[in-house]
Amino acid sequence: MKKTVLILVMLFVTLSQAQELKPIPQISVSGEGKIKVIPDQALITATVETKGTNVKDVKKQNDIQIEAVLKLIKKMNLNPVDYKTQRVALNPQYDYEKKKHNYNATQTLEIQLKDLSKYDELMEGLVDNGINRIDNVMFQSSKLEQYQSEARKLAMKNAKLKAEDYLFGMGQKIGKAISITDNSQNYHPQPVYARMKTMAMSDESAPRVTLAAGEIEIIANVNVSFILE
Q1: What is the rounded distance in angstroms from the CA atom of residue 105 to the CA atom of residue 56?
Q2: pTM to 2 decimals?
Q3: What tens digit of pLDDT does each residue of 48-70 get?
Q4: Given phi > 0 = left and psi -120 to 50 = alpha, else beta, which region is 169?
Q5: Cβ-based neighbour number of residue 78 at 10 Å
Q6: N or C: which end of the chain has fewer CB within 10 A?
């Protein structure tokens, strides 16, 4: 009798484990959300580079030009937290033909311009006051986190729509999401296309317009697994 009870208990446990190991019907899909926005800020990286044979003169000239650039930035009332020195370098360069050393001094500034209406004035002023290398101009949005949230919501909607499309006519419905993986890449703002501004050039005193900010894309990518009902 005890042996029979033991066998029944073992059988019950085995059946219970088999039920627990039964795979859950599910579907896994990817989703993408994309937001296009017009940028309202620019991150500008600009450098003063000076060269010469006398190291002190090269450094002094570089400092004079940087000082003039910083005065321009302050005159334009940019917030002090929106610009900084990114990199300073002073390097010897040996001229094998003339058998002597030359020197190369560089100072790089990073400027966060939060008012694009000042873009042309700033860029022209930078060059006039000593900047001789614009390394990069990257357009951005001040509402990045808001747009990233919207893109994520669109990505989830897109994933659910895909899953429903795959189940069309199969008599099954999408249930709860059991796993969500965010595959979004780090955001690197880049112009998608350029909207060139034009203006009458008959008035030579009119300010030039050189900015073509275009649009930037904010993209979210997810993988979602849904239970099937």
Answers
A1: 10
A2: 0.69
A3: 999 999 999 999 999 999 999 99
A4: left
A5: 18
A6: N
Q: Do the bridges between strand 174-182 and strand 216-228 make them parallel or antiparallel, or are there none, so unpaired? A: antiparallel
CA-based diameter of the chain, in Å?
110
Cα angle vertex 212, ends 210, 215, to 5°?
165
Distance CA(106)–CA(102), nearest Å, equals 14
Enclosing H/E stretch for 57:
helix 55-75
Q: How many CA atoms within 13 Å lie on the side-chain side of 161?
A: 9
Residues 187-218: tens digit of each pLDDT: 555 544 333 333 333 344 444 555 666 788 89
Residue type present at position 70: L
CA trace torsion 139, 140, 142, 146 (10° rounding): 150
Q: Which residue has the tokens 């994933």?
A: 159
Which of 110, 105, 104, 103 has the alpha carbon at shortest distance from 135? 110
